[in-house]
Design brief:
Helix content: 55-70%
Strand content: 5-15%
Largest sheet: 8 strands, antiparallel
Number of strands: 20
Distance between the termini: 42 Å
Strand order of the largest sheet: 3-4-2-15-18-19-17-20
Amino acid sequence: MFKRNLWKITLTAFIGAWAISSILPLKDTPFNDYIQASVGAETTEFEALMLQASERAASGESPSVFVALKRIGQEQRIDLAKFFPEVRLEESLKNVEKRNAILLDYLLQESKGRLQLGLDLKGGVAFVLEVAEEVGAGEAAQQEREDNLAKAIEIIGDRINGLGVSEPIIRPVGNNRIEVQLPGVSTKDNPEVVNTVKKPARLDFRRVYASPVTPGQVPTGYEVLGLEGEYREGNAFIQDYYVKRLPEMTGEGVDAAYAVMDEYGSFKINLQFTDVGTEQFADVTAAIAAEGQQTGRPGQLAIVLDGKLYSAPSVRERIGGGSAEISGSFSQREARDLANVLNNPLAFELIVREQNEVGPSLAADAIASGIKASQIAILLVAGFMVLMYTVGGIFAVISLAVNLLIVLGTLASLGATITLPGVAGVVLTVGMAVDSNILIFERIREELNLGKSLKAAFLAGHEKVISTILDANITTLITSSLMIMFGTGPVKGFGVTLTIGVFSTVFCALVVTKLLLAIFIEGDLIKKFPMLVKAKAPTFDYLKYAKPAFAISWLIVLIGIGVVAYKGHEIYGIDFVGGDEVTLVYTERQNTADVRAALESGGIGEANPLYQSDLAGDSETLKVQVPVNEGNKVLPLLQSAFPSAGYDVIGQTTIGPSIGSEIQWNAFMSLGLAIVGILLYVAFRFEFGFGAGAVVSTIHDILMTIGIFVLFDRQFTAPMVAAILLIAGYSINDTIVVFDRIREELKSNPDMRLNAVINLAINNVFVRSVLTSVTTFLASIALFIWGGGVINDLAFTFLVGVVTGTFSSIFIASPIFYWWHKGDRKHVERHQDVKPTYEWTGSSRASE
């Protein structure tokens, strides 16, 4: 038994160790402490450098020790890598400034906790960008500015995603500004991040003057551009070129840019041209090559980005392959950032108007209550499993812990940002993950009730439930994969988390739980498999009440849709429709939770207070985001609630939505494609009538959840997009469990009528469906009771979704399947998977 399961033990131990190593350390270590602890050589000299850097940071000469060390290394030509021999840098990279930048960036990243926290939990950096005034004035120019603003928001989002920053907030402010908030980022340590985001990235391909030039005389139509290089020892030099002012072609012909490493370990950027760009580049290089053949010296084509010369390669022949490269002494980060900017070029300049460090958008007590709610939710689920299944429950809790570890470890390895709604999402995913264990345990119960031994019941039960677990999770995987492929922002992020959860759930159910059961059951360590409730399958006729239940349910859906249509934009929060942003100064700082409560109790609706300070740290302001036309109410309400705080308004503007139309459209498209994908998969794996039932029940659950959410006068915020998508995944999960049993009963009962088969199948999985719903319901109710704000909204949504999902699998999906085939099982049996199989059976007559 041990040898047979050795691979499972080894694999589980390896994955568990990897997950733990990915998560640790849990918290950030101050950079100053981390770098001093990491020094491996010449500690006395480095202590002197740290003293200089600390003095510069304290005096304000440098914003931080991190930046001060960079500047000291550059000024004194000190290769900081000599103090850290364990950090391996590229041997071919000799430039001291770039080596120091790579080293310090690496050490800064290593000083951070592996699970980075979002704006709501930790804060980050915020800056406001403005469209350059050169766009012009007048009505036409204003429209152009607005178009530029919308395009810039899309491009900045793509650039930030390329930088690896998760869960950013990007929204318009007024009619010519963009606010960007980046969680876990500090411009004190990463001052280049703002420049990377805002640079125009105009790419030109220009001719280099081929003939000799008299010193001091620049040819007409040309300008002098310097190309940076370095000698073997690492010292930099600049070589001047006479470059034509007007380009032969621009970056509009570039389709994609990639940062790659060559055979010598240096980094460069490969360019792939569009079809039009390929022809243009071929024509340009052909003309330069022909001119070079006439003059006897090869011509050159300069690559210029934002007025800076990056390379000037020689052209000896026509280049028609549709690609080119930008070479130079790039570090890996420089090459990656340059490729990112080239892939997302801005056609105009953005000016930085404000730059601030922002504190957590949630107060400490709100964070504490959210974490407490999550802990209680996990304890309730674990306690319920142990109470219901005793020894099996303990195995389920162990499997659940491994599952949670894998999810968090994978998120950490991907550099994901953890927000409080994200924590709640993981908790709800955990609640759903124990469903697979319940499916296994309940199937073992059925086999035991048939009189089988514990070993036989374990083997048969686990074998029969594998297809159910796989089918349920594959349909969820279809949904999550489409979110990743077509979604952006929070939709894509949620798709990644859900995909990780699917794989970890399947692994833990089919490997970890089975391993524990095999060790204890096949090893004779346990003789019984006690369960608290010895439930028997009911004998209820569900299809008898299907029509009235179906009608009442859809009536509720229609009422909800009607309320949604009546309220219109009132159902959307600031994340979707924008609002007013009021900036205040004060003499007495108040807790953000108290500020939010004072404003919302004053009838102002949704309120999002946020403290931010300038980079010098000598002034702090309070920004309050409220619904449209509610900004004028902020000051009177705060002055009334906190008379000694000395609040005064210093600015007010309008802000646009952080969930733009593109993200909304991508969310709808992802959901629509997911529904089509589910239909096709279920139709292929089961039968088309099953697919129709699954799709109708999923749509029913989504609409029902949205309608009830709005009926209770709640507003949709950004995390609610993910919550609705999670409901779709939960709904199809429960439906597949019922469908899988219907298919099984069709095979096992070849003479039974279709309605009797469906009722039998639902009755056989009824206890299982209720118990799986209870675990998710327990997680949701804990978040609902002890979590506030958006956590409460998420929990409420899921409470509704759990009930509707269980209801729809019985009274929506199954009746649709029944009606699709007009109550005749012969229609179903046309699909080979559900045809009964008949075999000749012989018997011994030895007794005769």
